[in-house]
Write a structure and sequence with these properties.
Blueprint lengths: L1 E6 L2 E6 L9 H17 L5 E6 L3 E3 L4 H5 L4 H23 L5 E5 L2 E3 L1 H7 L3 E5 L5 E2 L2 H4 L5 H10 L3 H9 L6 H7 L4 E3 L2 H16 L5 H11 L1 H7 L12
Parallel strand pairs: 2-3, 3-5, 4-6, 5-7, 6-8, 7-9
Antiparallel strand pairs: 1-2
Helix pairs in contact: 1-3, 6-11
Protein name: Delta(3)-Delta(2)-enoyl-CoA isomerase
GO molecular function: delta(3)-delta(2)-enoyl-CoA isomerase activity
InterPro entries: ClpP/crotonase-like_dom_sf (IPR029045), Enoyl-CoA_hydra/iso (IPR001753)
Length: 239
């Protein structure tokens, strides 16, 4: 599950427990509810930090849940359903009216990495944890919004090729060089502390949330088109 806490202008969304934080319908729904609460309470200066307990940030879709359907077709249906219901969560984060930061204190794989990359900034450990896109290894093509998210967030063709066509398991320093994460730190506590410092810096700007969200969306037209997010013009209240 997840918890949501607000301290000052910063919202802390935490995936709880020591498991792999596999993205099944229950967890996806819980995170979406938390993000909706964040949006409802948003004010100028709000910032969201998402982190996770244990050695995983998220290990992607819950394949055990899919397999528990009891048949090959049932497993495929469950997996496709997870792909579909995760898409609105990505849209929620891309359109959230505030800066967002993912503090990766452990492994982030496949949909778990996509969850992290749906945030504006990423901090990561240098000593433990890898980033990994497992789809080629397990024999699965990528959902269209995964590919659009990667093209939108990773400008380097070689970085995308390394993640997707070599299935590299990327550690912290290399992740910075590839442009996947913004900074690396020596421990899980330092990862979160760095995220908090960044959140405090961004929060001081007191930006208008709707404007922030629209400018963010404008940066990623292909992704927003696939997510069904439309542009909206926001003008200053005083000219």
């Amino acid at each position: 599950m997840c918890t949501l806490e607000k301290r000052g202008n910063i919202f802390y969304l935490t995936l709880t427990g020591d498991d792999e934080h596999r993205l099944n319908p229950t967890l996806i729904g819980s995170v979406r509810s938390a993000v909706a609460e964040v949006k409802a309470q948003a004010t100028k200066g709000s910032v969201l930090i998402t982190s996770a307990q244990g050695k995983f940030f998220s290990n992607g879709f819950d394949l055990r849940y899919a397999q528990a359907a009891g048949s090959v077709q049932g497993a495929k249906d469950r997996l496709l359903n997870m792909v579909e219901i995760f898409k609105p969560l990505v849209a929620d984060l891309i359109s959230l009216p505030m800066p967002t930061i993912a503090a990766i204190t452990g492994h982030a794989a496949a949909a778990g990495l996509m969850l992290a990359m749906s945030h504006d900034y990423i901090t990561m450990r240098s000593d433990k944890g890898v980033l990994y896109m497992s789809e080629l290894d397990i024999g699965m093509t990528l959902p269209d919004y995964f590919t659009a998210l990667l093209r939108s967030k990773l400008g380097s063709t070689s970085a995308r090729r390394g993640l997707l066509l070599r299935t590299l398991k990327v550690k912290g320093e290399e992740a910075v060089e590839m442009g996947i994460v913004d900074s690396v730190h020596g421990s899980g506590e330092e990862v979160v502390e760095a995220a908090v410092r960044l959140a405090e810096e961004l929060g001081k700007k007191k930006w208008e949330g709707k404007v922030y969200a629209e400018i963010r969306k404008a940066l990623y037209p292909e992704l927003c088109g696939i997510l069904g997010l439309k542009d909206a013009q926001v003008l200053p209240s005083r000219l």
